[in-house]
Queue: 4 jobs
Job 1
Amino acid sequence: MLLTKAEMRRAMLGGAASLAGIIAFVGLAVLALLLSSGGSSILATVFEPYILRILRFTLLQAVLSTALSIVFAIPVAQALARQRHFPGRIWIIRLMAVPMGLPVLIGALGLIGIWGRQGIMNSALLKFGLAEPVSIYGLSGILLAHVFFNMPLAARLMLAALERVPSEYWLMASGLGMRPLSTFRFIEWPVLRSVIPGIAGLIFMLCATSFTLVLTLGGGPAATTVEVAIYQSLRFDFDPGRAVTLSLLQIVLTSMILGALSLLPAPKDEGMTVGKPVRRPDGRLPGARLVDGGVLLLATLFLALPLMSVVLAGLRSDLMKLLREPIFWQSAATSLAISISASALALLISMTLVSARRTALLRGSGAFGRRFLFAAMGGASSLVLLVPTIVLATGWFIALRNLGNASAVAPVLIVAINALMSLPFVMRVLEPAFIVHKHRTQKLAASLGVTGWARLRLIDTPALFKPMLTAFSFAMALSLGDLGAVALFGSDSFVTLPWLVYSRMSSYRTNDADGLALILGVVCLLLTIAGTMGPARREVAVHG
């Protein structure tokens, strides 16, 4: 083996320490929930009409949001796939990536600016004699917001599947003179049918665990999900027993969703192809161009108008007044410190887990031992999907409430929770790059005797700088825009930017909220963009 015994020992010890830390942090939160309420009281509470109504609404809005996102994504993906030379096509695709890097609270504010009581759409429709035809609050608002965030994701995934269709299929369709309906039935739908279950499962998971959107746009007890009910039970009612029951119910719900997702079939390979990309015959028809242009125009307006609303409303606010307020700089410093710490922690944990997973594959005590370690360290990074952030925060809130003031350790807890929240993304960015880099450089480094700190400084860091920057910047954007972890611990002395925006919204200081939202949104988008930019000169020097 090219790894020395010392390197293997360090890698395995680092991975084991990270694995133990993740399990302990999540496990203690879950244990605190289990110990805070007896089994009989939990069962009695679960079957309360209020709890059943919340569970029913959670599932209902998730099902409807998923269905609407999929239904609207199909024509958008079709139009983008058919019109490969559509003017501005690349910018439409880039626009669809913006909601993924935008804090949820900022998107909600933009939607309120368009669809709210005084929003552009309702104001326009009022002129036609319709009194507030669209309500942004309650079930309709939650569905609208979920479609805004999830339809672009579904459309991009479907577009990627359609673009993998071999060019020979389109040549055959052109030769047979197939009409658009036949093309959809025999070529597009089989491809979409293979990827829709996985896309729908992912969106359903996101909607079932939605917190910020429902907290902002929910219409009271009639439009409350399990996660929001957990927050309300502790923050307003201070009913720890109900919060524990709801938290355990949420864990069961996410476990069932993740279990169902693991049973979904993998997308099928569309077959080998040797031809060049061919302009699709069904996209040349004048009617198809008109329809596709209309679909893309509507999708662009649906996504761009809320973003423009955030920008315009923010510019109309008194930004200079906000920048002079001490609370702004206090919350900005708190958010920045938390996001940098959480991102660095996520990066450190990911690197140790990735290194240990590779070492476990190279040499282990046996086939079963290698598979177990590999799976355990990979699964640990996704524990936050099983135990959502609001549930983790609730568990630690319950555990610390008997020890005095829990707010004293709130920053540490929020850093840890935000690090776990971004860990799945960081792992997915770093692991492929790490494996490829080690495969390319391991033999040369071993032959030159470059090990330890020298290897890390001279070989690993320069080559892995770009994926590390991508992971770090996106983790910072996620942490900066997060409201879930701070929702339980936020106070007058502990304020983050998202919590400050939400507080100004709740106190009807909408101008201030708009200005703060613009600042926060611009920072998060800049961080997301920074993650896709690499130091070109440095890479040339390393590879040259």
Note: The chain has 24 helices and no strands.
Job 2
Amino acid sequence: MTQAITLRLITRQAGGGEIVRTRRIDTGEALIGRAPGCDIHLPDLAVDMEHALLRALGQGRVSIESLTGEPFQVGGKPALRVELDAANAQVVSFGAYELVFSLGAEDDVVVTVLRREDDYHPTPSLFSLKASVFGRRRMAWTLGLAILALCLILPIAGAAWFRNSHIHPDQQWSTGPLSKAHAFLDKDCQACHQKAFVAVRDTACLSCHQSGRDPAIQAASDARVTGLGSPFLPLLMSDHAAHAKLIRAMPPPPTITGKVAGVFQMALDHPRDRCASCHREHTTAPPDPNVPKTADVVRPGKPALIVVTDCAGCHSRLKMRLPSTGLIDTPDWNRHPDFRPLVTVGFDGPQPRLQRISVTQHPLEANGLTFSHRVHMSATGGVARQGEVLGAAKGYGAALTCQSCHRPDGGGFKPIEMERDCGACHSLAFAGGPGNLQTLRHHDMRNILGVLRGSLTPANGPHVDPAVLRRAMAPGGLCVDCHTIRPSGGPFGAEISPVHLADRVLPWGDFNHGVAAHAGVGAGAAACADCHKAAASDRTQDFLIEGVATCRACHGKTEHETPAFAGAQCSECHSFHQPGEAPRTGQDRLFTALGLPAGEKPRGLPTLGPQAP
């Protein structure tokens, strides 16, 4: 026979007393839950709709099993299934309700349902307005009044208080003023920020700084920038190397913070390979301990275009990140590799064959000439005597110096010309006949053959005697004093070797001979002999370029070490955007456009600092 279950629901009244309702379940099973159709209806949000099933097992024992996987409390401990002896007055809790089990008169299981007081509710902050510390109603009023004060009363009061102030809403988006180079764009944000909420792209920078050999590109860029109000001309930029190589060569951020920031920058469409990744605007210049205080630089705290990636950042371990490179790692000035100039090692026909050779290997230059610097620069030899005889009227008057043949031309030298630089002593005149003195035009083989033909040809027809030309190229002949003669399979049996005198032998670095300290001007300045040991050279093949140790005599030194102290920054000789040149300023280009030497400012123009574009 199935054991019955008797339910006793006790409801406490507010004024005191209790209401007891009793119901009998003969099936021996009762459904416990919040749903109205449950046998034991427990209207509490902490109880599931059909939370558990109660079964009478006979002999005064019952079982309770969770139907939803949510536990109930038995003796203060959570449980999903339990068997109880009703004779022991066991208590089971569901939310705010307690089920007390006992035995009835007919051995029925009696279940008494009691509701605990609200003060003992296990989760008052979830299912009631009453909280243990700060009530929800009080919190709602406090937050409402705070929003009213901050969003309505305070703005109205601020508008009245700052009525006469000038507030520019766009200033809250700017992190600082523009540098001198871009100050003329202060009111034209769209010139750089071409699309809202998108980082400045390279196309905006290249709209003014696009590089190209076409003069029309230069003119269009200049016209656009000056039309916008710039007081100087822009520098045109080209890639330091192929873009893909630049990305692989770029080192990762050195700090964990930088690496994390890089991830977020890429995720937010803020790539690290833009012009603006290295050239930061709207910022101020930090103090540079390596720059003398007297130098003409942007002062700390002033608006500046900050370069955040330096040369050593990529070139210190470049070989590791870019194994295909032919460059040598250069972590700093003190570990700069020695020079590897382009040396003429021979000729392929008339074209010179060039090869990069370190100066430590003492390269020899096959330039096609026969010349002794020592003989020509001796203060007591025949050349010096010849100069005295020629006199000052012809540009001499004393022993020869470097400037006698190497004539300055800006930062370099004019090409050597035989008639101008050598012709005063080495004449190309010869007697074409009695009383007929003729002169050969140097570098013009047609003229030489024509003159010789005319002087040797009888009146009845053209004829050139090969023996005459062979004598000119034989030892003691007209050409041998200065030119290298090499055998030939032609009719003359020999020919003059091609001549190649390089204007620049360090193609990736810029050495300016026009700098005062390089031209021997000022205390401690270098003379030609300090860098070129020409006075001891007997061979034209001697490559008269010293190593980097000679440069360190001044560069990287302090004013206490040498009067000719100079900086050791990479930008002294190398430019990122114009490989093979030192960085130029817009001021230099402006002076060049006006036909003035660099650094000479005409009246009426503003003084432009080194940050000009």
Note: The radius of gyration is 48 Å.
Job 3
Amino acid sequence: MRAELWGRLAAADPGLLRFTAGLRTVTSIALTLAVLAALRADVSHLVAGAITAMVATFAIREKGRAQQAVTLALGLPVALASMSLGALLNARVVMGDLFFVALIFCAVYGRRFGDRGTALGLIGFQIYFASLFVHATVAALPGLYLTITVAFGCAALARFVLVRQTPAGILARLRRAFRVRLAQLVSAQAELLDAGPDELDRAVEEVRVRTARLHETALLIQGRLTDGTSDETVARLVQRRIADAEIAAERLGLLLLTARSTGRADTLTLHLPGAPLPSAVGEPVRDEALERLRLDLEALRLLVLRPGGPGKGTALARLRNRLLGYREGENLPAASPAVQDVFRGIGEAGRAVLGLRIALDGPQDESDDTPATSRSREELDAEDAAIEGAEEGERQAGEATGLRRPTTRAAVQVAVGSSLAIVGGEFLSAQRWYWAVLTCWIVFINTSSTGEILVKGYRRLLGTVLGVVAGIGLAGLVGHHTWTAFGLVLLFIFAMFYSAPLSYTLMSFFVTAMLGLLYTLLNTYSLDVLVLRVAETALGAVCGVIAAAVVLPVHTDRRTDELLVTTLDRLADVTRAAADQLGGAPPVDLVEKARDLDQALADLAAAVQPLTHPITPLRSRRDTARYVVALLETCAYHARSLAATAELLPTHPAIAADPRLRGAGRRIVHNIEAIAAHVGQDGSDARIETGPSIVSMLEPGTLRAPRYGRVTDRVLRHLQRLDESVAGLARPLQVPVRQPVPAP
């Protein structure tokens, strides 16, 4: 029972990243409060210490422990200087406001210097804010210096001793989360097999959600591989096996959906909510083949979850051997071709799980291997050797970098927005105007367009209103019970960090409820104060939106178009390289290209959220954005599958290069580039081309590759689906189509 609960937590929070962030922050604050209480500090110092400990913990985002220690050490003098300036300028309104604006500009501009610049800017801003919150004075500075030093010391103790988190440990937990989410996806696929007509939509939606969650975990692992492994070869091997398992699992879902219908399932179904299901999906068939299929899906789930490889004589070893036998057509039941394809898909998934287990857990017991299992191991060993050989022959030029955010523009926008917030906030309240500035600052964090800022401001305002209601009730219950209030503050801080990646509205709710308790502790609580909090929040959000819309604006359309072009360029790179390699070209690093595509697509999906938000009034535009992203996710799946197959070419006995595959990919790449040119250049006359179906190469006798078999069949089908999906992008993006010229 305990292992099951831990597994569910690992799946809900991959790598326990949110849990660890919340626990570390709460531990840091609790230690700070304990030390300050032992020193008999008053409530204002307790509040300042809690805020400082929280900032000193969450501001540091670097992955290496040595880099974290340096940033934390540099953060202490920054915090002391910021508190000093806050106390000195607290009574000088104009000078204090001008300095606050300059500090905000520098804090945002500091992001261009990476994680350390971002952390130091955040510490400087938040500690200055804390000085305003506790009404720091020059006379109180010695005590506040001690409070800040204690808070930083407790933050270091929590980070490096009590709640340690190493890159290798994070990666190990992420890999466990990947296994659990893969098992959950297999369970959802089994439910899809048994779903009736009334349950089918829900079952498909569950498969869609769990497929997306598996992909999310794969991206998290890819981002942690370099730091979490000491050997670059091992990192690339794990990355390859993670990609194989993800592709095999998604393909299995498509095969299951196809087996339930009279037509072939479209990959778009697994990426677009509300996409039409295949035709003639009726009641699940209850025959011997499908009963066996259900048992094999359960066997696959057990193979995924088992922490160690099946040992000699175990039932799981026999199940594994049976599943791997399906890859070679062994013991396939008498059933329709679509159902037999599902059994082969289970075999491919079993092979991916075997490769994943070898990469993560090391060598396995081979005493019970059947010939089919031995051949799968030989293929995996040959692929591993090819990866090691590629590592020896090439030097990595460094890590891939994402798009650089224009920090100068953001700094100017935040400075202008904060100036407006200061002026407006002073009219609302001469004592608590800084809440408007804080909101303006926050809505600019991790946003790049006016639409993103608008949505974030709306969510923060909604969460603040709900938090005010909760704060009113909590203040009445807690009263002046100091330690009860601080206990609730710690609970809300944990909930804030745990919910932050899931819901910005929920995070804002916990922040506001926590602040209501802090107001109570400082004896400044009243209904008027909490209502003022809502008004200042609304003012700050409006000022942020005005600044983003007027000062060097980055419109949502422009931002999404830039990211769309980047995604299309990455898609063209993967498709071109995979098709060339399948056609006989020298091998290249396809896994890294696929990773760049995934990251570009993730950036695009985040940027279009303002267009797909429920409050968006333009519903047709919202539907178009969702459709385009879903089509791109479909394209990315087929491109990843092509890349994974192309990397097998040097070692897999069932795959041979065929020059015509290179030609088949050329038209797809041309169409992708034409769409990118149309989106990125106003007035471009680029057109996509249509022609004979790529799948026509599957006609008997037309492909004379000496090893033509099911793998080559799959390559052509991925090319066909990719061709159709790319052509499908032309309509919503309004790209003209050039009709093929008939042959003379």
Note: The two ends are 72 Å apart (CA to CA).
Job 4
Amino acid sequence: MDLVPALQEPLKKVLGPATAKVMAEHLGLHTVGDLLHHYPRRYEERGQLTHLADLPMDEHVTVVAQVADARLHTFASAKAPRGKGQRLEVTITDGSGRLQLVFFGNGVHKPHKELLPGTRAMFAGKVSVFNRRLQLAHPAYELLRGDGEEAIETWAGALIPIYPATAKLESWKIGKAVQTVLPSAQEALDPLPDSLRAGRGLLPLPEALLKIHRPHTKADIADAHARLKWDEAFVLQVALARRRHADTLLPAVPRVPAADGLLTAFDDRLPFTLTEGQRKVSEEIFADLAATHPMHRLLQGEVGSGKTMVALRAMLAVVDAGGQAAMLAPTEVLAQQHHRSITEMMGELAQGGMLGGAEHATKVVLLTGSMGTAARRQALLDLATGEAGIVIGTHALIEDKVQFHDLGLVVVDEQHRFGVEQRDALRGKGRQPPHLLVMTATPIPRTVAMTVFGDLETSVLDQLPAGRSPIATHVVPAADKPHFLARAWERVREEVGSGHQAYVVCPRIGDEDDDPKKAGKKKSPEDEAEKRPPLAVLDVAAQLGRGPLKGLKVEVLHGRMHPDDKDAVMRRFAAGETDVLVATTVIEVGVNVPNATAMVIMDADRFGVSQLHQLRGRVGRGSAPGLCLLVTEMPEASAARQRLAAVASTLDGFELSRIDLEQRREGDVLGQAQSGARSSLRVLAVIEDEEVIAEAREEAAAVVAADPELQHLPGLRTALDALLDEEREQYLEKG
């Protein structure tokens, strides 16, 4: 049944093949409906001019301004040696600033005739700098005469919509295309149930589309935004609610721990008491594990809040109930670290089938890609027979060869590093769908958890275990104040002098020059501006060993070392044999050396906010206070310095994740960000629209509970199909 023929019409039939091709390739717009949902980014008022003073460098901009003067210069060049080269310089103004436009060669004739002083127009181009002044070279422009049928028709109303555009297609051309398809908006099927729309006083969809593209007043824009935000939040939450509903229909084996089994034995030997938060979250998990449908739970917690302990108790409960548990870690360093710390915590309880093993003991095996053949064969055998209750591994766990006796629980550590397919492949190894616990140490604001992980129940650990120490964080401006950097190395020596250890983190390894893939990589504008590649582990370690840290035992750790070498370096550092570890971000998660109290992060501006918070969490894990120094050469007024100041000002990961998100924007909440596609969120901002998302989640749950197949809501079904194209559908299926 073809529900929305007008909106499904391909653009090439309506606009012509050339325009349609650019829209498809550069903006991802294919149908009339796509174009109607390509909303203006902002609006210009006829009587007002944009702020030329605030133009961003290297960005494609659209400005509305007035021509102040225009001058034609002739010059000699290789192409025009007799001084017949022509350059037209036009200065435009908006009251806040001035901007130079420049046209060359044959391109000067038309603007020379049209861009006379006093003329108002829209100009679009890429902002660059020439002779220390901002300019647009060969901008496209559209005169705003304010008379003539076409101008009045196209720019109806006092507000001019400025669309997200590309160099190939200016904002006003998109505006004209929208004008062509706007009558089709009348046929848009409304995804919101009538009762919901009426109850919340929201505009009907056709009216909202009309008002966002052709507003007469600012109130029109606000009403349209309010309505369209609801669409995005509600349709997305319905998709997630249907996912949760489908999960409740899947069968799973309930896993209830034995009264006096492995879990009890483990709890009895713990040298400390669990925090209130750990106990509460464990109870939520145990209740899920006892259910007849699979658990899908997200466990998020501050760095160092004891998530591994909670996950281990869940795994022991499943082993107690006769099943097996698998923990999937993103790197070999982390898998080895987890294996080491879990076998240490369990002691003789991890020695199942061995001499000296305790009564309820099980076997804990490690499985990584670089293991020797014999060890690997034994690990696979232990899993297939059920001898091993717990396995910790990397992607190697997902391979076809790996067979489980009875997989009951999958724990995924550091969720954002795994593809959905990988999680799905591991879940497929159970006879029935196993329970799933996803852990992340990157705190996620509540609204993001409701959208990105909306198909998972969420548990939060926000309490640090007793005995954890505060971490002091300071920004070290190496360029402005070189003596601060010298003092930083003195502080490292002082920490080592008092029996502690330190990390030095660098963005790069330093052997990439041999890597042909990296050599041809385009540099970012920041890299270009700084004319210096990020500092590298191998270079920094050598300089420190010869200079400020001479005499200390300095070692390096990075991702391209052989796994055995990495493990040996980590063991020596954990044993206190190494004073300073110079590493890349391989130490970002899970590495636990309580005696390491200081961390110096070089080129800290090259890391994201959440990543810095993760790294900092490696110190202050014992009873001595932690110190984290963020070294940067960026100037004080830069955005990068503001970011570092934010990290230094708070230890609250949730607050930092909010700052991080505001700076990065959301990307596509259904995982499309990874594939570089356009965001499915156009007007909804996950941080600012917390209320809308929370209310939409409630409404969606009620709608799906009453009508899981949405049989009585054809408009909602159509909107859902449009949102869940195949790739997103799979993403949710496997979530």
Note: The chain has 28 helices and 21 strands.
